[in-house]
Amino acid sequence: MSLLNILRYPDPRLHKIAKPVTTFDARLKRLVDDMAETMYDAPGVGLAASQVDVHQQLIIIDTSDTRSDLRIFINPQIVWASPERSVYEEGCLSVPGVYDGVERHTEVKVKALDVEGKPFELAAIGLLAVCVQHEMDHLKGKVFVEYLSSLKRNRIKAKMLKEEREMHRDNRHSTAR
Ligand code: NI
Q1: How far is the CA of 138 from the centre of ligand 1 (A)?
Q2: What's the rounded Cα separation, in Å, for the pair 174 and 177?
Q3: Which residues contact 7 (CB under 8 A, 6 or more apart)?
Q4: Whole-model pTM?
Q5: What is the C-alpha to C-alpha distance for residues 33 and 26, in angstroms, rounded to an integer?
Q6: Which of 10-14, 23-27, 49-53, 169-173 has the weakest average pLDDT?
Q7: Degrees (nearest 5) of the Cα angle 105, 135, 168?
Q8: Band of the pLDDT at 177, cuts 50, 70, 90?
Q9: CA of 43 to the centre of ligand 1 (A)
């Protein structure tokens, strides 16, 4: 297994549209393993393949306290969404250090395939429902900050770009030593 590089907002590759997975092979299992290792290491509760620059419809989620309940959704589709909506404070591994409230469906029913290509359905509520909607957005090229006002989004963009410049500068310094 290996850690994958997580794209940082506003990397334009985060806005690519993911294609359905059609081959359920060892390569796919390896990708799932690497994504899980990357998510647990970060640490985060969810990761979409889009965030590691693989533009296929694959998301993983683990909302358990024990970090032992990995859920894998391939080609996920929301088949039902509650009319009730709730606001939840969200964060994203592609936008580290930024948290803000986003309104989403309180409950959703998702249809997806597992890593073997077998279909399943899951009713999600609470944090799991938030994660499913957040990660599925990534597959459509959407990052949660796009739900915020343009004023907030521009501030976040500027903060992220500044951090990136500082990281590059620090890297240069450390390699020069
Ligand atoms: Ni995210």
Answers
A1: 7
A2: 5
A3: 13, 14, 50, 51, 52, 53, 94
A4: 0.95
A5: 10
A6: 169-173
A7: 135
A8: low
A9: 12
